[in-house]
Amino acid sequence: MDDGSRLLPAPLAGDVSCAQAREAAGLFLDELEPALPPERREDVLTVVSELIANARRHAGGVTHFDVRVHLGALVVEVSDRSPHGPLTRPWAPGRPGGFGWRLVKQLADRAHVYFHEGGKTVNATFFTGVSEPGRPAAGRP
Fold first, then answer.
1. N or C: which end of the chain has fewer CB within 10 A?
2. Is there a contact between 15 and 62 (Cβ–Cβ < 8 Å)?
3. Is the peptide bond between 93 and the residue preceding it cis, with omega within 30 degrees of 0?
4. What's the CA gap between 37 and 59, in Å, rounded?
5. pTM here?
6. In the β-sheet with 119-127, what is the strand arrangement from edge to edge?
7. Per-residue pLDDT of the chain (141 residues; tens, 9 = 90+)
8. Strand, coil or helix: what is 97?
């Protein structure tokens, strides 16, 4: 999908680590106008970490990572090799793990999974009202 600003000249692919993805996303967020409130920025970076970690841990690795702005929304996208969707496990405080997808759905305004040949893409959208780097926000000159 090429309908908004790019995080880098090209999306990241391959063995992307959580640290690399968070750093790249953070640099992109630094360029947004208007700036995201600190708590919303942390929500986005937490979702980036969760999606990358889950792709690496449960889905054969990251095949695509991107962050962009489209129509005032910030979109985080992570693709992996697994044809299986994320699971929401029952609440079990004594058992570690299993809360990543629940967390993504709570922090993002919308989260979708798109299945395609070779795996799936998880898309987390944040309705922020930001504009593409270098372009004014809606309603601003």
1. C
2. yes
3. no
4. 32
5. 0.83
6. 62-70, 73-80, 119-127, 110-116
7. 444 554 444 466 667 899 999 999 999 998 887 888 999 999 999 999 999 999 998 888 999 999 998 888 999 999 999 999 887 777 767 776 667 888 999 999 999 999 999 999 999 999 988 766 555 444 433
8. coil
